[in-house]
Each structure stands twice: as structure tokens, then as C-alpha cells.
Design a protein that fits this description.
This protein is α+β, with helices and mostly antiparallel strands. It has a single domain, classed as 2-Layer Sandwich (Heat Shock Protein 90), CATH 3.30.565. Helix content is 54%, strand content 23%. A 5-stranded antiparallel β-sheet has the order 1-2-3-5-4, sandwiched between helices. β4 and β5 form a beta hairpin. α2 runs antiparallel to α3. The longest helix is centred in the middle third of the chain and has 25 residues.
Length: 179
């Protein structure tokens, strides 16, 4: 990257009110360190304790999902990296995250997001309670279950997803959560 492009990147961050941006591999320690920095940054901006907790919780959910997916699929570094941005615009926090996924996984997740987007707050609460009651096999993941529903419940607007095909086997899945 040419140094002049860094100024363009900074201007883009300013234009979109981006507080945090990361692109790369999400290790457990990196997720933790960025999370601590995010909390301190939000507190310095005088975010309410609820805002800090909600933004942090969604950041953790999204980055851990990216990390777990990459590990589960045994992806190469190029495919395993993820991207996250957190911005604040008009008293709302906007969290965007994305990563490379297999086509079938991305299509299923995209479908699931659209199902959740059609539900109102009461329906999301009922779905969350129902999901909580479901038995889980030891060590089983909820597979974009409870965490996704919880994000939809916390969001001030329906979740928005996009899924772009990269080639015949892979796509880039992106999710936006607005608080």
C-alpha cells in the first residue's frame, strides 16, 4: 500500500464514522485484546454501560463465529481471515463482520438471517426461549442459533446480510447489526 492510500483509508474511516476496523486472522488472544480496547474506546466516548455491553457482546459473538468457522473447516490463512468494522452514526452503533465461507454454508446462513429479519421483537423472544429449551448434545454448537437470535433481539433494526460468490465453492458472507 502506498502511503498516500493510508490517508484515503483514514478519510474513508472518518466519512463512515468507523471507530474500529480489523482485517485478518482472529486468534483468541487477539479477539480479547481488541475487545478490551473496544470497551475502553467506547467508555472514552461516553457510551452508556448498556451500549458498551451490547457492542462488546456482538463483537465477541461475530469474531468468535469467524474464528470457530475457520478452525472447524481447517481453512488456510487466506480463507480464514475475517473483517469487522464498528462505527457510530446518529447515536447508533453499526457492527459489520464478514468472512469467506463455503457456498452451502453461506446460502444457509443468508436464508436464516432473512427468516429472523421477518420476526418482530416478541417473536424473536419466543424463538430464543424455544431454542434455549432444546436439548444439546455435549460439545455441540448452536450453529448460528442462540447467538444469532440474541443479536437480532438486541438490534434496533432487522439484521442485514449479504452473500457474494467468489468462485464455484466459496463466497463472502457479511452481516450487519445496528444497535
Amino acid at each position: 500500500m502506498h502511503p498516500q492510500n493510508l490517508l484515503l483509508l483514514r478519510n474513508l474511516f472518518e466519512q463512515h464514522y468507523i471507530l474500529l476496523a480489523f482485517n485478518g486472522l482472529f486468534s483468541a488472544s487477539l479477539i480479547e485484546e481488541i475487545g478490551l480496547a473496544l470497551r475502553k474506546h467506547l467508555e472514552a466516548l461516553s457510551a452508556t454501560p448498556t451500549e458498551v455491553t451490547d457492542v462488546f457482546t456482538i463483537y465477541i459473538e461475530l469474531t468468535q463465529n469467524i474464528r470457530h468457522y475457520s478452525k472447524k473447516k481447517g481453512l488456510s490463512d487466506e480463507r480464514a481471515s475475517g473483517t469487522i468494522t464498528i462505527s457510530r452514526e446518529q447515536n447508533r452503533y453499526i457492527i459489520n463482520a464478514g468472512n469467506v465461507v463455503e457456498m452451502a454454508d453461506g446460502e444457509e446462513l443468508f436464508r436464516r438471517i432473512h427468516e429472523l429479519a421477518r420476526l418482530d421483537k416478541l417473536e424473536l423472544k419466543a424463538l430464543w426461549k424455544n431454542q434455549m429449551r432444546q436439548p444439546r448434545a455435549p460439545g455441540a454448537s448452536t450453529g448460528a442459533g442462540l447467538g444469532l437470535i440474541d443479536m437480532a433481539r438486541k438490534a434496533s433494526q432487522p439484521l442485514v446480510a449479504s452473500f457474494n460468490r467468489l468462485d464455484e465453492n466459496w463466497g463472502f458472507f457479511s452481516l450487519q447489526v445496528i444497535l
